[in-house]
């Protein structure tokens, strides 16, 4: 996800009884990268929710957790590998579908 705002719906704002996470890894080699986005404080600071039966954590690519496979993107070249232009070659096909996108960093 790139250039997004992740915030609660009005009915969840201020509801401290609801725990919210960015997601959880479903399969081996799952990968999620959030670039240049705003993440509201309603997301649990851990960020990701671990499956109880999850194995192969070293094959994952997640941030904001302290599991094997967790990464902080601090190198611009590493970040660029996840932009639309490089990760899914968006310039080649997204315009034909009329899908708005930002090919590089905002």
TrEMBL record:
GO terms for molecular function: pectinesterase activity. Residues 1-90 form the Pectinesterase catalytic domain. GO terms for biological process: cell wall modification. The keyword Secreted does not apply. It comes from the Eukaryota. PANTHER family: PECTINESTERASE. This is Pectinesterase catalytic domain-containing protein.
């Amino acid at each position: 996800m790139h250039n997004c705002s992740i915030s609660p719906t009005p009915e969840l704002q201020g509801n401290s009884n609801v725990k919210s996470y960015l997601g959880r890894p479903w399969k081996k080699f799952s990968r999620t990268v959030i670039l240049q986005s705003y993440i509201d404080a309603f997301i649990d600071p851990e960020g990701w929710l671990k499956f109880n039966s999850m194995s192969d954590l070293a094959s994952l690519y997640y941030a904001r957790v302290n599991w094997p496979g967790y990464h902080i993107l601090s190198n611009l070249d590493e970040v660029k590998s996840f932009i639309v232009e490089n990760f899914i070659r968006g310039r080649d096909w997204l315009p034909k579908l009329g899908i708005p996108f930002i090919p590089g960093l905002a």
